[in-house]
Amino acid sequence: MNRKQLWKLLSGLGLAFGVPWFLMILIPYFQQATASPVPYSEEEGVDGFTVYPDPSYGTVGASDYGLKIYEREGCAYCHTQVVRPTYAGPDMWLGWGGGPETARETRPQDFAGEAFAHLGYQRIGQDLSNVGTRSTREELHRVLSDPGSVSTGSAMPSYRHLYRKTDSGWAPTGDAEALVDYLLSRKKDQPLPDSVR
Ligand code: HEC
């Protein structure tokens, strides 16, 4: 190969990989990284929220340790955390979109403040983006300590190693409480301002 051919090959490779990288990674990265919170207009009258995304709603915050447990126990191998648009899947129809009045698809800004977006690998179990809007602490401890009692023949493994046996049943350890705090914090149904809808 002479110099000219080598130059052609390298610039061809550069174009083939560089242009998609620029369009699909770099531009969206800067669009998302510099997106600032959007205020609601006065007419919207959204209770309790002043901006979207609200830093205290559905973000990890106090349950950082619970997030570590979620990562350590491999929950993301079976559970996703992204409510797909209806053209891409039945998530909204399955009730994963959030509260009855507020259910919606996930937007990139819903991950603001999270160091890592746990989109997940497979959808063997339900999407957990909004599990905090549809579960109680007791229900979550029950699923984790004894999935079979919630649905017979469950494909979900038992996380009983996060519980201690007591005379009255399975008592959560600190790790189980932290994990459940994290799950209860999962809410990605903050109402969107009209301007971003
Ligand atoms: C091997 C796959 C698998 C793994 C790993 C797994 N789950 Fe599950 N999970 C399921 C399946 C399947 C269900 C559906 C209900 C059933 O069959 O029991 C489920 C149900 C649930 C539910 C009830 C969801 C709802 O909408 O009410 C919660 C909460 C949950 N899992 C949390 C977790 C957490 C937290 C972890 C990690 C500690 C985890 N799961 C690990 C498969 C899994």
What does this structure look like?
This protein is globular. Strands 1-2 form a two-stranded antiparallel ribbon. The model has no long low-confidence stretch (mean pLDDT 92). With 197 residues, the protein is mostly helical. It has two domains: 1-34; 40-196, Orthogonal Bundle (Cytochrome Bc1 Complex, Chain D, domain 2). The longest helix is centred in the first third of the chain and has 31 residues, at 3-33. A hairpin with a 2-residue loop joins β3 (163-166) and β4. It has helices spanning 3-33, 64-72, 131-134, 137-145, 147-150, 174-184, and strands at 38-39, 51-52, 163-166, 169-172. It has six helices and four strands; from the N terminus they run αββααααββα. The structure holds heme C. The site of heme C has 24 residues, from α4, α5 and α6.
Number of strands: 4
- Looking at CATH, which topology of the largest domain would you report? Cytochrome Bc1 Complex, Chain D, domain 2
Identify low-pLDDT runs: none
Radius of gyration (CA) equals: 21 Å
Helix content class: 25-40%
Average pLDDT value?
92
Helix/strand order: HEEHHHHEEH
- What best-fitting shape do the alpha-carbon axes yield? globular
Q: How many DSSP H or I helices?
A: 6
Structural category:
mainly alpha
> Can you say what the CATH homologous superfamily of the largest domain is?
Cytochrome c-like domain
Q: Characterize the largest beta sheet: strand count, sense, and whether it forms a barrel.
A: 2 strands, antiparallel
Strand content: 5-15%
* Number of structurally distinct domains: 2
Q: State the end-to-end distance.
A: 55 Å
Multimeric state: single chain
CATH class of the largest domain: Mainly Alpha
Instruction: Supply the CATH architecture of the largest domain.
Output: Orthogonal Bundle
Write out the strand line-up for the largest beta sheet, numbering strands in chain order: 1-2
Bound molecules: heme C
